[in-house]
Amino acid sequence: MLVYVATKNAGKLAELQAIFADGPLEMATFADYRDPVEGESSYTENAMIKANALYDQMQRDGIDANVIADDSGLEVAALGGRPGVVTAAYGGEDATWAQRRALLLNELRGVADRRARFVSALHFISAAGVEYTAFGTVEGTIAEHERGVAGFSFDPIFTYPPEQKTFAELDAAQKNAISHRGRAARMLLRQLRTATHPA
Fold first, then answer.
1. Out of 35, 71, 94, 171, which one is annotated catalytic?
2. Is the omega angle on the peptide bond into residue 36 within 30 degrees of 0, that is, cis?
3. Cα 24 to Cα 61, 167, 185, 186, distances in angstroms
C-alpha cells in the first residue's frame, strides 16, 4: 500500500521508510506538500494537522491517496518537559540540529537528573478518508556529550539505558526496534490489520 508522508525532514522520511520496509506500507513523498501551521500543546493534534493538510492538498490535485504524518519531540525531566511539542523550533526556527544539541547540553551542564524521553504520534488517513492515530514513547537519559554518527536530531545525545548507547551509536535496525517512532508504527500496523481483518 503506497502511503505519502507529510514531511520535508529527510531524516524522518528515511527512518519511516526503514521502519515500514518489511510491512505492507510503502512510504513516498508528495513534492508539492506544504507544511501547515502547528500547535504547541499536542503531538497527536499536530500529526493530525499535518496529515490532513497533505490529504487535502492531494485531494485538491485530484489524487486519492493514503497519507501519514508524524509529530515527535524530546521531553527532558529537569527542564519541565521542554523542549516537548516545539522540539523542532528549540533554539529558534533557523537553528541547526547541532546547535540545538549544544544548547540542550549547555542547559543541563552540572544537572544530575538527566532523565528524558522521546515521544511520537502518528496519524494515518486512508484514501477513503478513514483516520487512525498511534502513539509511542521511549525512556532514556541525556548524555554528557555527543556520541555516535547515525540518526538525526537529538539522537547523538539521547542514551538508551539498556544498551548504554546513544541512538546515534545504534544501527538503524536496533534503533527502530526500540524507538518511539518504531513503537508508534507497530501500534498503527496493529490497528490497520484489525480494521482489515476484524476478529
1. 71
2. no
3. 25, 26, 12, 12
pTM: 0.92
**Do strands 2-5 and 66-76 pair parallel, antiparallel, or not at all (unpaired)?**
parallel
Confidence of residue 144 (pLDDT cuts 50, 70, 90): very high
Question: How confident is the model over 61-98, as pLDDT tens digits?
Answer: 999 999 999 999 999 999 999 999 999 999 998 999 99
* Contacting residues for 106 by C-beta, under 8 A, at least 6 apart: none
Q: 9, 12, 71, 66: which is closest to 38 by C-alpha?
A: 71
The rounded distance, in Å, linking the Cα atoms of 188 and 124 is 8
Contacts of 100 (CB under 8 A, 6+ apart): 83, 90, 91, 153, 154
Say which residue the cell 491517496 belongs to.
65
Nearest to 116, CA basis, from 124, 127, 105, 125: 105
Residue 37 CB coordination number (10 Å): 7
- Our CA angle for 105, 122, 84, nearest 5°, is 25
70 carries an active-site annotation: no
Q: State the Cα–Cα distance between residues 199 and 186, nearest whole angstrom.
A: 18
How many CA atoms lie within 13 Å of 94's alpha carbon, on the beta-carbon side? Answer: 0
User: Residue 187, exposed/middle/buried by CB under 10 A (0-12, 13-18, 19+)?
Assistant: middle
pLDDT one-digit tens code per residue, 39-67: 889 999 999 999 999 999 999 999 999 99
